[in-house]
Amino acid sequence: MEEEYKRVINITIIGLLSWGLIFILIRRIFANYSFDFSTRIVSTLHATTAVVLATLSIQDWSCPVCPIASTSSLRQMETLAFSLSYMIYDLICSHFDQVISIDNAVHHSVCILGFVAGLFYKKCGSEMVAALWITEISSPFLHLREILKEIGYRDTDLNLAADVCFATIFSLARMVGGPYLVYVTISADNPNLIKAMALGLQLVSAFWFYKILKMMRYKFIKRTMSNQKST
Q: Where is the TLC domain (predicted)?
């Protein structure tokens, strides 16, 4: 068990340093773009890799969240440590930006605490990997919509398509898959801290879902008014 914890710690430390170096490299390559532009590219790299790792760590494809309340496998712990390193990096990196998002800080703090709790207890690896998949599957589209705005595609059909893809995937993952995963986690014999983290993450997801609904309503109203003026 000590070897597993050492491996988790090593992955977290090396990952934290690696994310920082990747950001510095991307920042130099895209020096003409904003700080936020570079962070979103790094975030997209993490989200894509995290979804792949989470998918590869599934033990039973007939029941992706099984075995429930079981001891985490080494691959699951490595996947969680990988994302833990990114969350710590991103939380630190956000403090160097000109605009600090309280919503984002709370979200990252909940995720970090959840990762640490899961790794410490070495339990519910299946549930936590499923949560990672659910939370990151929509992230590439989240960042794509902002990247498109910065490179000159604001208020275009392409940008609207990215908005719709993000809103659809987020809603299905967080508000359909999310509640089911919370129910499975809470009803199983998991540590109370893990249950609290699952519920907290779902509440954060519900808050973002509300904001996304308002955003999409505004987008479609704006597009409709624009089309009426053009005709």
A: 32-221
Spacing of C-alpha 140 from chain mean position: 9
Locate tokens 């308002």: which residue? 214
d(CA 7, CA 10): 5
With CA atoms as reference, report the closest residue to 108 among 139, 79, 130.
139
pLDDT tens-place string over residues 82-133: 999 999 999 988 888 766 667 777 777 878 888 898 898 888 889 999 999 9
